[in-house]
């Protein structure tokens, strides 16, 4: 593949719809003029300014500050659109700065810019896939310049999982019912309509992910250079919990290949919009077409939950129905009905009001006296199993082994 910078720029610009214009709304006039100037130089390949990278970085810094001011939902859409456009422009300028062929380092920087644009920007109406397509194209180019590793790296699952299973068996609770490939009608009438959780077995055998994903080399090859958000620390309600952006390669090396006991969780992230090949490996469960109150069923929100042994999602509830599908690894789920909400002591601050103060694995009975009244439902989710978690049902999730789950919220 030719890595000459003019060819790469030409091929990237072909993805950029010429109808896009920069809107001034929500920008200060200096930033608007700088962005417009960079835009015109890039899109019309009329590179003149001495320091265009510096200029586009200033625009991105400004937009980044705006994105982090106030509540995320209140950030004007134009700011997020402009972040997408500026990330694209940065890619073109980085490449333009190369002497002749695009280097490995520049490809990596460009992919990072595309991913930050995907994570923080908003898709442009004219081409919703612009940055995802750019990242895919750049990743393929990079893969061809870097020496190819052809080794497979299959996950070694832990041997000591029997201990965890024994502990699970000792928990006093009712085991969640299970059904083997129930018909849509059975699922709807016996579980969905009554909002009763159920484990669904045998429903993922046709997913390509089941065979492909436990070879971690697949992720390295497909997405090693892609930037992903990782939660650091075992539990988001802990004080020392934080979030970090890193490449997929760094994530897999640190939390799967090394012997470190540190915990990093690629959690609640729509990896499938970012890396479309991964979406081809999964299938939306047909059960997600069930709807309450005859409302039209909507496309589910799909999220990835990829992490080492020991990740914990503390006891919380969500506003949507959920099917949590287990691709590899084993997870323990502890569920409580919304009827038990008071007995679980939700946090009082709004930000954490969907999270319980009680830790069901280590409850402080003196502080949370009514917790003993709450009825536990428990489930072990093994590879190929799905769990239906009805709206607002409280759930606490622990990975007993290295694990990848996909959630479908609707
Ligand atoms: O798997 C996990 O760690 C948590 C999943 C979850 O909370 C969800 O899908 O809503």
CATH superfamily of the largest domain: Cupin
Task: Give the spatial strand order of the biggest sheet.
Answer: 2-3-12-9-14-7-6-4-5
The CATH class assignment of the largest domain is Mainly Beta
Strand tally is 14
Termini Cα gap: 42 Å
- The computed structural class is alpha+beta
- The CATH topology of the largest domain is given as Jelly Rolls
Bound molecules: 2-oxoglutaric acid
Short précis:
This protein is α+β, with helices and mostly antiparallel strands and about 400 residues long. The protein is built from 14 helices and 14 strands. The protein has two domains: about 5-145, no CATH class; about 160-410, Jelly Rolls (Sandwich).
Structure report:
InterPro entries: Cupin_8, JmjC_dom. Pfam families: Cupin_8. It is found in: Nucleus. GO terms for molecular function: histone H3K36 demethylase activity; metal ion binding. This is JmjC domain-containing protein. The chain has 410 residues and is of the alpha+beta class. The protein has 2 domains: 5-145, no CATH class; 161-409, Jelly Rolls, CATH 2.60.120.650. 36% of the residues lie in helices and 18% in strands. It is built from 14 helices and 14 strands. Strands 2-3-12-9-14-7-6-4-5 form a 9-stranded mixed sheet. Strands 1-11-10-13-8 form a 5-stranded mixed sheet, with no helix packed on it. Helix 8 links the parallel strand 2 (178-180) and strand 3. Helix 2 packs across helix 3, helix 2 packs across helix 4 (77-96) and helix 3 (52-67) runs antiparallel to helix 4 (77-96). The chain is globular, with a radius of gyration of 24 Å. The two termini are 42 Å apart. Bound molecules: 2-oxoglutaric acid. 2-oxoglutaric acid binds at residues 305, 311, 313, 318, 322, 324, 395, 397, 405, 407.
